[in-house]
Amino acid sequence: MTDNQKLPTLNLIASPNWTGYELIDTGKGQALERFGPYTLIRPEPQAIWTRGLPAKQWDNADAVMVPTRDEFGGYWDFKHGIQQPWVIDYKGLKSEIRLSKSRHIGVFPEQASHWDWIADQIKSAGRPLKVINLFGYTGMATASAARAGAEVTHVDASKHAVAWASHNLDLSGLGKAPVRWLVEDARKYLKREAKRKSFYDGIILDPPKFGRGPSGMVWDYFEDIVELLALCRRVLTPNPKFICLTSYAIQASALVPHQALQEIVSGHGGEITSGELVSVDKSKGHILSHSLFARWSAN
């Protein structure tokens, strides 16, 4: 470290503007959450503290995710009748919730701050923007970008996730928005875009810790993120507006995505904000960290 080198400031960013979601309480390795009309209990290994609410309030949950040995898998123990699927709303952006053999149910509520930030970047640009959303999952970031006026390319290796994202866009009243849906491996698609000299003003990427593409390609975060980010740099326009990088389920510091993003935007100026996406429970104010992030915006 040189004498004049400034250390980055890491931030904790929450999403407090939800009405359709609430982190009610945490503790004993679980989280009690409300998604619309239903309350769910999901595993939360970070919640090593005692619960803030009495047991009877936890016992009234509509369903409990019982984990298995798989990192994200398990089964739902339904305590009360739940009509599936159902829809929750964030500022007019709608997401369908479905309970399956995974703790992932269709939305990551802590990312709502990203959706707001992405929309702000697009609205403040003063020009039309082309945006690509890599590993787009069920498309809430895509919907936010499209509603703000961007032309969006949504890429995910899962056909099921892409269909879900397209449905969420329809639910949000954005069915006619300029969105392209692609079931594709992110790296393969970026390589083709670079060869075609197809460029983007904004990039949203949320790579998993581990995954498989539609043709069996394996994704491993620490082995493959360097190549992915190098490809992202190749498809940036000469005057890019923003990049939003989220990193889940990896044992690392937020300095990792921060410094990785620095390499993509080297020479473009602007500002990088990095840290952790968190949620705060309503009972005792315990803070759960969900993911690392780094966001860059042009001046």
Describe this entry's structure for a reader:
The chain is α/β, with parallel strands linked by helices. It folds into 2 domains: 11-97, Golgi alpha-mannosidase II (Immunoglobulin-like, Sandwich), CATH 2.60.40; 109-297, Rossmann fold (3-Layer(aba) Sandwich), CATH 3.40.50.150. It is built from 7 helices and 17 strands. An 8-stranded mixed sheet has the order 1-16-17-15-12-9-10-11, with helices on both faces. A 5-stranded mixed sheet has the order 2-3-4-5-6, with no helix packed on it. Helix 3 (140-147) links the parallel strand 9 and strand 10. The model has no long low-confidence stretch (mean pLDDT 92).
Key structural traits:
single chain, 299 residues, alpha/beta, Immunoglobulin-like, Rossmann fold, 8-stranded mixed β-sheet, 5-stranded mixed β-sheet, globular
Quick gist of this model?
This protein is α/β, with parallel strands linked by helices and 299 residues long.
Biggest pleated-sheet summary: 8 strands, mixed
Given this structure, which CATH class of the largest domain is correct?
Alpha Beta
Say how many strands there are.
17
Q: Classify the beta-strand content into a percent band.
A: 25-35%
Low-confidence stretches: none
Order of helices and strands: EEEEHEEEEHEHEHEHEEEHEHEE
Which structural class should the secondary elements be placed in? alpha/beta
Our Rg estimate from Cα atoms comes to: 19 Å
Helix tally equals: 7
Overall geometric form: globular
CATH architecture of the largest domain: 3-Layer(aba) Sandwich
CATH topology of the largest domain: Rossmann fold
Helix-residue proportion: 10-25%
Mean pLDDT: 92
The fourth-level CATH homologous superfamily of the largest domain is Vaccinia Virus protein VP39
Instruction: Write out the strand line-up for the largest beta sheet, numbering strands in chain order.
Output: 1-16-17-15-12-9-10-11
